[in-house]
Design brief:
Length: 132
């Protein structure tokens, strides 16, 4: 039995004690998480040593918002890209209207509905398996 696995790459954006984990392409096809998962078929063990919110984004895709040990996953149909200007990121503002440009401690990104130059797709699928 051959198992082919992949998961989205994660872009991490931080604002004070809040972290956004954004699932995107290209997919990872080889890393420690996938190797552990293929060996054990135990997601909890494969996530060992990773932040649980990041692991949740790897498994389920989408955008995971984490504050301390609490996190929320949302699906966003669209893309994101780096920008020079934006409004300060606040969770409630983002949940009301995610399609905007937000500033974080480590940069500014815009969430957009349609593909633009240099934009990246938000992957809402997450972990993929092919067993043959």
């Amino acid at each position: 039995m051959d198992i082919i696995t992949s998961h989205p790459r994660i872009v991490k954006m931080k604002k004070n004690d809040i972290t956004l984990y954004i699932s995107t392409f290209p997919l990872e096809t080889e890393d420690d998480f996938l190797e552990k998962l293929k060996e054990t078929f135990d997601v909890e063990e494969a996530c060992d040593g990773k932040n649980m919110a990041e692991c949740f984004a790897i498994i389920y895709g989408g955008i995971v918002i984490s504050k301390n040990s609490i996190f929320k996953r949302i699906e966003l149909e669209g893309y994101f890209k780096e920008s020079d200007k934006g409004i300060e990121f606040e969770i409630n503002r983002f949940l009301e209207n995610p399609y905007n440009c937000y500033t974080f401690d480590n940069g500014t990104i815009c969430f957009i509905k349609n593909k633009e130059k240099d934009s990246r797709f938000v992957d809402n699928v997450g972990l993929r398996f092919i067993i043959k």
